[in-house]
Amino acid sequence: MNNYSEKGLLPAGLADMLPPTASAEASYTEALMKVFTANGYLRVKPPLIEFEEHLLEGAGAALSSKMFRVMDPVSHRMMGIRTDITLQVARVATTRMKQDPRPLRLSYAGQVLRVHGSQLRPERQFTQAGVELIGASEIAADAELILLASEALNALNIPDLSVDLTLPTLVPAICEELGVEEETAAKARLALDQKDAAVLDDFGDTLSPILMALLKAAGPAADAMRQLRALNLPGRAAEQIAELDRLVTLLTEASPDLVITIDPGEFRGFEYQTGVSFTLFARNVRGELGRGGRYHLIDGEPATGFTLFMDSIMRAAPRSKGPKRLYLPFGTSMETGAQYRAEGWITVRGLAKAASDSEEAKRLGCSHVVNSGDVTEVA
Amino acid sequence: MNNYSEKGLLPAGLADMLPPTASAEASYTEALMKVFTANGYLRVKPPLIEFEEHLLEGAGAALSSKMFRVMDPVSHRMMGIRTDITLQVARVATTRMKQDPRPLRLSYAGQVLRVHGSQLRPERQFTQAGVELIGASEIAADAELILLASEALNALNIPDLSVDLTLPTLVPAICEELGVEEETAAKARLALDQKDAAVLDDFGDTLSPILMALLKAAGPAADAMRQLRALNLPGRAAEQIAELDRLVTLLTEASPDLVITIDPGEFRGFEYQTGVSFTLFARNVRGELGRGGRYHLIDGEPATGFTLFMDSIMRAAPRSKGPKRLYLPFGTSMETGAQYRAEGWITVRGLAKAASDSEEAKRLGCSHVVNSGDVTEVA
Fold this sequence. Notes:
The structure is a homodimer. Chain A is of the alpha+beta class. Chain A folds into three domains: 13-160 and 268-322, BirA Bifunctional Protein, domain 2 (2-Layer Sandwich), CATH 3.30.930; 169-266, no CATH class; 325-377. Chain A has helices spanning 21-38, 52-55, 86-94, 139-155, 170-178, 182-193, 197-200, 204-217, 221-230, 235-254, 310-316, 334-342, 357-363, and strands spanning 42-43, 49-51, 69-72, 77-81, 104-113, 125-134, 161-166, 219-220, 259-262, 277-282, 290-296, 302-309, 325-328, 346-349, 368-371, 374-377. In chain A, helix 1 packs across helix 11 (310-316), helix 4 (139-155) runs parallel beside helix 10 and helix 9 (221-230) packs antiparallel against helix 10 (235-254). Chain A starts with 20 loop residues before the first helix and ends with a strand. The model of chain A has no long low-confidence stretch (mean pLDDT 93). At the A-B interface, helix 1, strand 1, strand 2, strand 3 and strand 4 of A face helix 1, strand 1, strand 2, strand 3 and strand 4 of B. Chains A, B: GO terms for molecular function: glycosyltransferase activity.
């Protein structure tokens, strides 16, 4: 019989979440979901595993190497453990909820698993919570999502929130309008994403100045928009800038305190996005709190959504102290216990007569004890 | 590209939980957890997968054939997807929380997966919520758990609850006291479990009458205890009956309305239990709501716990209607929306000007619409 004493009790990147963290994660997740629900988002819960090909549709293909697979002995087909929930929710929207009126607002929370952690995120199991808004192409939909994410994170009292906007489709549109060939366009996009000013100079007299200007424009929204407007980009690129401008206006009007930055050249992690994409941060907190943006469902329907990462949120959200623990000496009646719980106490019942009730209370981590019908603080 | 139109979208026994079921399951689970927390149970969250040998310890071995396995490319060891959470919580108690004061009260909620469903439960993914009370051998601990389960289920307004008590160790103790050989004892135990009166007659003049009496005793607690006391069983068997008697007294005193039945011969599903075990039912609801009982941790520490099955609980709990949906016409301010949400409405925002706000409200499943600053019911 294994006595658990060996090293490496759990596989790397997998952990037991202990008190009080497990409880905090659950309350924070439900607090976020409550905000989504109050804004009309309907909760769905896809299964943890399903046929692998459905998990690898479209954007899912990028996560193929990160997916655990298991054989289904019932169907003799391969199943995958989900690495992300967004794609599953998109599948639900295009199948069982295809007849539901649009725009369709859906929310979800749950666990995902990955075969490998990353250097920044060594964990292999995450909790995600998020929403998808399906069938709306209006920029008001993008605004609704960013404001919703902000409302949800504010509900957890996370200080110093900011949202960083990007247009992963902007550089491709510029290059197409300018007739830049694809290979060069891809290099330009990467150089800008990596903020590699030296390389940005190598794209000729027309493209290089634009790329440099985009690099320079990155920063607080008002200033960034001024620079982007002044660029006078051609055709579809100009339309994208105008759309971004409308979004910034909507956000600023609706939530004047929201800190908005723009990084027009960022695209990594947003490869499959088709419009404005965004990342949520809290100052001085490692890692993104969440990210989202526009994409198309496999049947072509427009969609936008975001996912919040509970591990970052746990680092960002101030912990509440929670109710106090009250020791109920052995023999305390059920009614008495129920009354104290109704008043907001956590009650801890003595299972046998203790030599000293207050010592026993202290030993069990209780700050208070019931003493001849009164609540006394433990010295 | 797969268009999801094929038959068998999801593997058998796995399902997308849709609105409003997914939301109800989450609220019910958190309502149960809230009761556990208020009674001093600390939440833990073990990972969904871990090294398979840890999931197969002790009672886990019985679930070996039901466990999905995946290879861990990091450690090159086999991991299993958990089929149950109890064993993981027991592992946490004997390792990372070994130094925490006893009795240790832990709670958990989460998903488990099984390779095969059963005829009664074709599902392969379940939600479980439960508690473990570790390091207490007093019968008051058994009473605390049964009363806690009842308090939690009452919090969901589940009507007509009952708890069925059994002593899986009773027939083995009787047989040992009477010197019955093991093979015969196992047959006797099975015949009694199956309530096979014809077979019960075949165990000789001493054992058969006792088995028949145990069979006859099954039923409402007061009457069952009278019959069991009258049996005058030998030694350790009598001690077990006396312990059961104390438990019934404790439960009846604490919760006079709780319906208690006793089935002294039932043992299937409780093979690894070391004392009083119990099953929770709601009248006219298919399947157990939960089950629990005494066992030993692998280091010998006494423990008792129970697991609630959210699928049965969803069938048993009355659904609440939930808040009403209010349509906010395009252009409604953020503050207005926030105010209505603070009053308890679910708000659904228009993303573009609608031809008729009340028609649009109706189309989106809203019962009310904001009309010139007032809330109007949609005809």
